[in-house]
Fold this protein.
Amino acid sequence: MEIQIQPMTREAAARISTWHYPAPYDFYSMAADEEDILELMNGDYAAASDSAGNLVGFYCTGNSARVAGGYGAGLYEDDTCVDYGLGMNPELTGQGAGLDFVKAGMAYVSDKFPGKGIRLAVAKFNQRAAKVYSRAGFRETCEFSSMVGGRNVLFIGMVYRFPDDARTT
């Protein structure tokens, strides 16, 4: 899948906010309200489209990509990494396009933040995504729990270092 990344628009944010994921991934769903749209428009998010212009997902960086429980686990203490989050249209998940989608986002982050490693947090139950991240070169660094939607969720912290980066994860 060829991915084009552009600044988030209000139209894209409104569409993304209506995406609903099936259980157990449903905690990634948004409420489709103005608060969600404003979050997606805060400057940390970018929209991702395929070559036909169809909205396929989003990427985010910085504080918007962080999970609250990661602070207590020390996940965010390393300033040599940029925090990275992503979401794929639920109609496209589980169809084998995840690795291309993740790698497109990694290239976007690398261009936007040259010289930085990339850090993400993934819900531990989301083994489908964790496997894709591992295939993309991310390595697990820690586990932590965080409250999400009134539920205590276990997360895995993962880091990617570019090959010319001598630091280890």
